[in-house]
Amino acid sequence: MIRFEHVARAAAAAIVALLMAAPPAAAQDRLRTVQTAQTATPPAGEKKQHRLILQVNTNDPAMMNLALNNAANVVQYYKETGEKVEVEIVTFGPGLHMLRDDTSPVKARIKTMAQTMPAVSFKACGNTQANMGKAEEKEIPIIPEATIVKSGVVRVMELQEQGWSYVRP
């Protein structure tokens, strides 16, 4: 019984010692986090550049309008803070209908946004356009406000690799 008490006391002392050593290490981690955040902050007077990808891959007018709302809200927010922002709406799969000249339910809204919000751009997946063309046996027209990229998915990947933030409404 005496040995058990001795072992228990030694274990308790070791646990207390470990707990007492942990807070300084945690404080060092917090300090590193703060230092990292400080080095990521742009110099005084220089505004941070924000970049956002919005993905649309469904043929759903509500989703398309939500993406446009998100874009407009982000642009307005950063306009009010005086910071720069770029928003790129990338469409592929059934979401390409958003940028199709013959089927887009939001074509008029995109035209207005393109004229009033130059920070927002629209990208149409060329692979989807080609596949829809084969399936429908016709050329798929894209609205003039959009630019065709070879692959919408690859475009999203490449922008993320460049540090762009990603949102799927």
Describe the structure in your own words.
- The longest helix has 39 residues, at 2-40.
- The chain is 54% helix and 17% strand.
- The protein is of the alpha/beta class and 169 residues long.
- It folds into 2 domains: 1-40; 49-167, 3-Layer(aba) Sandwich (Hypothetical Protein Ychn, Chain: A), CATH 3.40.1260.
- The chain contains 5 helices and 5 strands, in the order αβαβαβαβαβ.
- A 5-stranded parallel beta sheet has the order 4-3-2-1-5, sandwiched between helices.
- It has helices spanning 2-40, 61-81, 107-116, 126-136, 152-161, and strands at residues 49-56, 84-91, 120-125, 146-149, 165-167.
- It is globular and about 70 Å long.
- The N and C termini lie far apart (65 Å).
- α3 links the parallel β2 (84-91) and β3.
Main beta-sheet annotation: 5 strands, parallel
The CATH architecture of the largest domain is 3-Layer(aba) Sandwich
Give the number of DSSP strands: 5
**Class based on secondary structure composition and strand pairing:** alpha/beta
The run of helices and strands is HEHEHEHEHE
- What general outline do the C-alpha atoms trace? globular
With helices defined by DSSP (H or I, 4 residues minimum), what is the helix count? 5
In the CATH hierarchy, what is the superfamily of the largest domain? DsrEFH-like
Average pLDDT, all residues? 83
- Distance between the ends: 65 Å
- CATH topology title of the largest domain: Hypothetical Protein Ychn, Chain: A
Q: Could you name the CATH class of the largest domain?
A: Alpha Beta
Query: Which sequence of strands runs across the widest sheet?
Result: 4-3-2-1-5
Number of domains: 2
